[in-house]
Every structure is written in C-alpha cells, then in structure tokens.
Design goal:
This protein has about 270 residues and is of the alpha/beta class. Helix content is about 40%, strand content about 15%. It has 11 helices and 8 strands. The chain has helices spanning about 10-20, 35-40, 55, 70-80, 100-115, 125-135, 150-155, 165-180, 190-200, 220-225, 245-260; strands spanning about 25-30, 45-50, 85-90, 115-120, 140-145, 185-190, 205-210, 215-220. An 8-stranded parallel β-barrel has the order 1-2-3-4-5-6-7-8, surrounded by 7 helices. The longest helix is centred in the C-terminal third of the chain and has 18 residues, at about 245-260. The protein is elongated, with a radius of gyration of 21 Å. It binds 5,10-methenyl-6,7,8-trihydrofolic acid, 3-methyl-2-oxobutanoic acid (KIV) and magnesium ion.
Length: about 270
C-alpha cells in the first residue's frame, strides 16, 4: 500500500449509517471535473450532477431541455474529477416517462458514467418507477416538493406544504417513496416545520434545499454557494463567496494589461 492510500468512496450504506447516527449529510452539485475535484477535496459527502446544469451551464431558462446525453457527459466528467463523495446523477425530463424507460435510462447512466445513484423528481406517480429501479439493484434518491421539471404544471417556483392538503400529500409521498426503496429523499422548498416532521418520520435521510435546517442533510447548487452566477440565486441560497466578482476583476486586469503592455505593431510593408 502506498503512503497515501486514497480514501474509499462513500457508499449508500455510509449515508444510511450517518442518518442512523443523526450525523448531518452535506451535498452539493458539480457539473465538471474541476469543480467536482474541489468540492470533493473540501469534504462533501455526496455530489449531485444536477439537471440544474441546464440553467447554470447550458444557459436554458428551465431544466426541461436537458437530455440524457447531457447528463451522461457531465456525470462522467464529475466521476473523473472526484474521489470520495458518493455520486448521484439527476434523471432529466423525459427520461423516466414509464418504469421500463426509466430503467433503460438509469442503466445507461450507471454503465456510461460510473456514478453510484440516480435521482428522480416526483411523488406518488414515481413510486412504481422507483420500485422497478430498486428491484434491478439501482440506488435511487427521490425528490418531492418543488420539482423544477414540473414548473409549467405547478405554475412557477414556490414553497410547498403551506396548506393541510398539500402537507398531507407530501407526508404520503415521502412514506411511499421510502417504502418503494429510495435510500434518500430531497425535499425542495418544503415549509421548514413540515420538512422537520417528515425527517423525523423517515428512516432514510431527507436532504433539504430551501426547507429549513432540520433535514437530515442539505443540498445546494454550488454556483449559488460560491456566487458564481450572473443572475440572483433563489432566496434560500446564502452565498459564501463572490466568485463572479473575482472572475470579473481578474479578467478586467488581464484585458487592461494586455492592451497597455505594448504599443502598436506596424503592418508589414507590401512589396508587390
Ligand atoms: N442556480 C440554480 N439554483 C437552484 O437552486 C436551481 C437552479 N439553478 N435550477 C433548477 C432549479 C430551479 N430551482 C429554483 C428556482 C427558483 C426558485 C425560486 O424562485 N424560489 C423563490 C421562493 C418561492 C417562494 O418563497 O414563494 C425565491 O424567491 O427564491 C426556487 C428554486 C432550484 N434549482
Ligand atoms: C437543486 C437540486 C436538488 C437539483 O435537483 C439540481 O441541482 O438539479
Ligand atoms: Mg435537479
């Protein structure tokens, strides 16, 4: 063994054990090898190759245009860049239209990228799909509350679980997805009191985003965390750096220096 044996990659069993111990789980997105290496070295437990890459990397208005091939290309890059974090790849809009299609899509993701798990947006409608994937040995993260792939049906991005009917629906979805075999569940923009209640009611970890501090873990789009964006992040994201300002300053210096360092270079004298 070498002096510096690389630390083994975190497994779904490790994540389950963290929930058992009550230890918080830290998850961030990454979309390329460099960012994956950095967030991995900084100690995240799980990396999500989010379909938010549609917004953050590809410049789309929503996540709907993202393809399975897009997800596979970026997930393979994240795998190459990372060493320790458990890797989860989002299943994009249109890739999980029925259990068989979802299985075929997820098999491609696992075969072609080397990630450990997939994440699927949706509640009761996705229960048979989660069961099917789990029956085939695939590790699945569920995702309820604000599900951005349903933005047009939901009529925008807003908090979920505010009224009793919506809260009861979310409780039921969380129970059913745990029973279907999901090993974790993302709660996005679920009212904090309800998210805490759902967290206490489940054995699998809840991973919150915009859902308060009392989930078993937290996830965030890495660009929102480090201020690497040109439009304001969702209000739940509290940026801890202003990387956009650092980039603009460095590039501005470079442009200025490049133009200041030299006088004009004369063109060759034409001889014909
Ligand atoms: N940069 C980025 N961060 C994300 O968290 C993210 C993406 N992109 N793209 C895909 C989805 C879309 N998400 C979103 C987008 C908007 C809001 C939003 O506007 N939320 C409102 C709060 C709604 C309310 O309180 O009623 C906000 O004010 O931030 C939330 C999640 C989360 N995902
Ligand atoms: C915001 C997280 C949960 C996500 O699904 C994504 O980044 O695509
Ligand atoms: Mg997503």
């Amino acid at each position: 063994m070498s002096a510096q044996t690389p630390r083994k990659r975190i497994t779904t069993r490790d994540i389950a054990a963290m929930r058992q111990r009550g230890e918080a789980i830290a998850m961030l997105t990454a979309y390329d090898a460099t960012m994956a290496a950095l967030v991995d070295m900084a100690g995240v437990d799980m990396i999500l190759v989010g379909d938010s890459l549609g917004n953050v990397v590809l410049g789309h208005e929503t996540t709907l245009p993202v393809t399975l091939d897009d997800m596979i290309r970026h997930a393979a890059a994240v795998k190459r860049g990372s060493a320790r974090a458990l890797l989860v790849c989002d299943m994009p809009f249109g890739s999980v239209t029925d259990p068989q299609t979802a299985l075929e899509s997820a098999v491609r993701v696992l075969k072609e990228t080397g990630v450990e798990a997939v994440k699927i947006e949706g509640g009761l409608a996705m229960v048979p799909t989660v069961e099917r994937l789990v029956a085939h040995g695939i590790a699945v993260v569920a995702h309820i509350g604000l599900t951005p792939q349903h933005v047009h049906q939901m009529g925008g991005y807003y908090m979920h679980g505010k009224d009793e009917a919506s809260a009861e629906r979310l409780r039921q979805e969380a129970r059913a997805l745990e029973a279907a075999g999901a090993f974790a569940i993302v709660l996005e923009c679920v009212t904090p009191v309800l998210a805490a209640e759902i967290t206490r009611s489940l054995t699998i970890p809840t991973i919150g985003i915009g859902s308060g501090k009392d989930c078993a873990g937290q996830v965030l789009v890495v660009n929102d965390l480090i201020g690497l964006n040109t439009t304001p992040p969702p209000s739940f994201a509290k940026p801890r750096a202003d990387v956009a300002a650092i980039i603009k300053a460095a590039v501005g210096d470079y442009v200025g220096e490049t133009k200041a360092e030299r006088g004009p270079i004369p063109l060759p004298r034409r001889v014909d």
